[in-house]
Design brief:
This protein has 1 helix and 5 strands. By secondary structure, the chain is of the alpha+beta class. It has 2 domains: about 55 residues; about 50 residues, no CATH class. The strands form 2 sheets. It has a 3-stranded antiparallel beta sheet, with no helix packed on it. A two-stranded antiparallel ribbon has the order 3-4.
Length: about 120
């Protein structure tokens, strides 16, 4: 009888250990998914502080935003062989007119308006 009682006790202990291991793994996966990424980011930033200054690359971008010109509406149908294109742009901005990939005309914006192109 002691032999069967010992087997039963060992089986219960094995089942308990398996359930605790599976539960622990599930909790660990949940914590890694929710908190792990933030911890990894913070750890990498912490390690970055110890990098020597010669390894750090500083990029200065002096590019400024240049607003594209705004074209006025073009007539959809006309009897004329030429079309007038005009609009607004930033003062002293140079505007190039391309037709089918070829430069046709150039102009410079004066007082926020550019002179019409005749094509």
């Amino acid at each position: 009888m002691k032999h069967s009682h010992l087997k039963k006790h060992l089986q219960q202990q094995i089942i308990r250990n398996i359930l605790l291991s599976v539960g622990g793994i599930i909790i660990l996966i949940f914590l890694l998914a929710t908190v792990g990424t933030q911890l990894l980011i913070n750890f990498s930033l912490f390690l970055d502080k110890f990098k020597s200054p010669s390894q750090t690359t500083i990029v200065k971008d002096n590019a400024t935003y240049v607003e594209p010109p705004t074209l006025n509406a073009i007539n959809s149908a006309t009897n004329s062989a030429k079309t007038t294109i005009n609009g607004y742009g930033v003062s002293k901005q140079k505007i190039n007119l391309y037709v089918n990939g070829k430069l046709v005309d150039k102009t410079t914006v004066t007082s926020n308006k550019f002179l019409p192109f005749l094509t």
